[in-house]
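Appendix B. Extra example for self-study. Work through it before the problem class; the solution is given directly after the inputs so you can check yourself.
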Amino acid sequence: MQMGEGVEWGLHCCVTLGWLKDEGPVSIRRLAAWFDLPQEYLKKRLQALTRAGILASTPGARGGFSLAKPPEHITMMDVVTALEGPAEAFRCVEIRQRGAGAEGGQFRRPCGISTAMRRAELAWRRELAGQTIADLMAGAAPSGERTRRNYARLRG
Amino acid sequence: MQMGEGVEWGLHCCVTLGWLKDEGPVSIRRLAAWFDLPQEYLKKRLQALTRAGILASTPGARGGFSLAKPPEHITMMDVVTALEGPAEAFRCVEIRQRGAGAEGGQFRRPCGISTAMRRAELAWRRELAGQTIADLMAGAAPSGERTRRNYARLRG
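Solution. Structure tokens for the complete assembly:
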């Protein structure tokens, strides 16, 4: 079970755009160069974040991406859901109700396996929903300083 | 991010083999019919559980699969790891250290994104490690009764 690589890309871009909020939109070309990522693939991920209302996309020669709302209102869970979809990792297809084993079955209660899987997934979601882009920015202040410094040099 | 369907299969087979422990090994043919699953695909999953020491495989005409240890010593996490591998769902490739953004970087501390992802994954693992096959059996006692009844009819 693997998350797509786009999750790491999207989270780092959100944190970076948070640090560069006074610079206006950052072009996809610059964001791709920032992390040495393939521009077209990165663009697809940032467009998904835009559709989810996490990023704003400004068209035009001076356009690019910026955070659509304050970083304390964007959780890691929001970013993961926008990029990986809302589906739970465990899909229960109720095999207990099929085949020779199910004969004479009633199955009034939800499957214990499915319930336990959901509980584990909720614990995971709770952790990610409790961590915002602002928290990540605050936890890496030296990187924020370097980001602003390097970006100023890039523009200068 | 999706778990393979084999996880549901594997967990239900473990619970069913727990209920049928007095019956000796259960053939792959019967287990597949039990849940109306494709025999060859199911066999691959049960072989993975056997390699992980969760199931025991007995060869021969009266052979089949059984639990390799008491159900209270097999956790849901054990089964998921045997079937999905031990890798974490989030793979950090340290893109923060690449490209124009990393210039002048030191990165002495672990990445906050990676740390938060790991914390969430640990919460998920903790839940699954706290739930055993014996717990699942105990939580579905009527299904255990039906399983034994249907199996006796199948053999009779």
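Self-check: Chain A has a mean pLDDT of 90. If your reasoning did not lead you there, revisit section 3.
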